[in-house]
Design goal:
The chain is mainly beta and 402 residues long. It has a domain of 254 residues. The chain contains five helices and 16 strands. The strands form five sheets. Strands 7, 8, 9, 10, 11, 12, 13 and 16 form an eight-stranded antiparallel β-sheet that branches. The protein is elongated, with a radius of gyration of 37 Å.
Length: 402
């Protein structure tokens, strides 16, 4: 039988005749029987968490799954079922264990199990399982997953306290062909839920020109990035999101204009511009454009009215001249435009000077006009709002859709 304590380390041999000078290697440390690295009787005598191996107490190496609770295991039921009271980590289910356990829908989430909604793309069974409460198809083997919002309006409806921010959307859901995308959301003006799709900027770049006008209509493109939306910008959302309502915000003035029910059904802004035809030469259209639904824009200065129009030809001439891009001084526009008086009277005088970049070729215009972006910025030119430094991206007009 072992004594209650023994000495660990060496000591001088009794009767040694070595008279040389040597270092004393004796530690004279007491080794408590049953503790780590101390002697034991095989099969017995070691403290909890230790086992006797070769006469020495050593740490038990736990083998999770062997149905024996040992080492630092809290449980071990010997199975691979993580939905019961003991997981394959040999611990009870937890909302911080990094696995799908207990009643969780996905790893460490699910309102019922963890009071935390699951993130986009994670498994779900009902909407309340998700951080953004939409659960739908798109997972492996036709399972449901938490969906991304389809627009900033979608995000606003479920998170009414949300502020201006960049979020990820998926316009047609997880099963649709349109890829998810990052967009900027404007959440304050006229109810919020606005998705930024376009910026025309006085940034010394010829982006929105007559020669490039197809980009504003049916030719998808992506221009710029979300870090510099004061410069020329086109979001992939421009040709992806329905544009039922439009919001125009000018800077640095912050004058804004909201137009409701511009698009029909799934029409994007590009679809609206394309469907308008070009040039628009309707002498009865004055005051019958898309009516202002809200904002700080007022009829003043050179502005004939606050309506929104598209693709106007120059109406200071007869119909034939208005329809002919190469005629006289037909300063035709393309895209959103406002009616103003440049000297020949209202309505629709020199519309390219009250649009967002493109300027028709016209018969007497310099050859470079079709390849030049004219930074008049719509109603801002009529109201003398472009007070920022020229060519520096300080004067710009942004378009949001909802």
């Amino acid at each position: 039988m072992l004594p209650l304590a023994c000495f660990r380390g060496g000591s001088d041999d009794v009767g040694s005749t070595d008279t040389g000078t040597t270092a004393d290697t004796s530690t004279d440390e007491t080794c408590d029987v049953g503790t780590l690295d101390c002697p034991c009787t095989t099969g017995d005598g070691c403290n909890s968490g230790l086992e006797c191996t070769g006469g020495i107490c050593t740490e038990i190496i736990a083998d999770c799954g062997d149905a024996v609770v040992e080492g630092d295991e809290l449980c071990d039921d010997g199975n691979s079922d993580n939905t019961d009271s003991c997981t394959t980590l040999c611990m009870p289910p937890s909302c911080e264990d990094g696995i799908v356990s207990g009643d969780e829908i996905a790893a460490d989430c699910g309102i019922a199990a963890c009071n935390v909604g699951c993130d986009f793309g994670e498994a779900c069974t009902i909407a309340n399982d998700c951080l953004f409460p939409v659960c739908g198809p798109g997972g492996p083997d036709n399972t449901n997953i938490c969906q991304l919002p389809k627009s900033c309006l979608d995000w606003r409806m479920f998170t009414p306290a949300a502020g201006d921010d960049v979020i990820t959307i998926d316009p047609d859901g997880a099963l649709g062909p349109i890829a998810e995308m990052d967009v900027f959301c404007h959440m304050s003006k006229n109810g919020g839920g606005w998705t930024l799709v376009f910026t025309a900027s006085d940034d010394d770049n010829d982006t929105w020109t007559w020669n490039n006008r197809a980009k504003l209509a049916g030719e998808p493109d992506v221009v710029g990035d979300l870090a510099t939306t004061n410069l020329d910008f086109m979001s992939p959302a421009y040709h992806a999101l329905p544009a039922t309502d439009l919001l125009f915000i000018h800077q640095p003035s912050d004058v804004w204009a909201h137009y409701a029910n511009v698009g029909v059904g799934d029409q994007t802004l590009g679809d609206i511009i394309l469907a308008a035809g070009s040039p628009v030469c309707d002498y009865g259209l004055e005051g019958n454009g898309h009516e202002l639904a809200g904002g700080t824009l007022t009829e003043s200065g050179q502005l004939c009215d606050t309506d929104l129009y598209f693709n106007l030809g120059d109406h200071e001439m007869d119909l034939a001249a208005c329809m002919d891009f190469g005629s006289g001084s037909n300063t035709a526009s393309f895209g959103p435009v406002w009616s103003a008086d440049k000297g020949a009277g209202c309505p629709f005088d020199d519309p390219a000077e009250f649009g967002l970049g493109p300027h028709g070729p016209c018969g007497v215009c310099p050859m470079e006009f079709p390849s030049t972006e004219f930074n008049y910025l719509g109603f801002a030119n009529a109201l003398n709002l472009n007070t920022g430094a020229q060519g520096a991206g300080e004067n710009y007009m942004q378009i949001y859709v909802r």
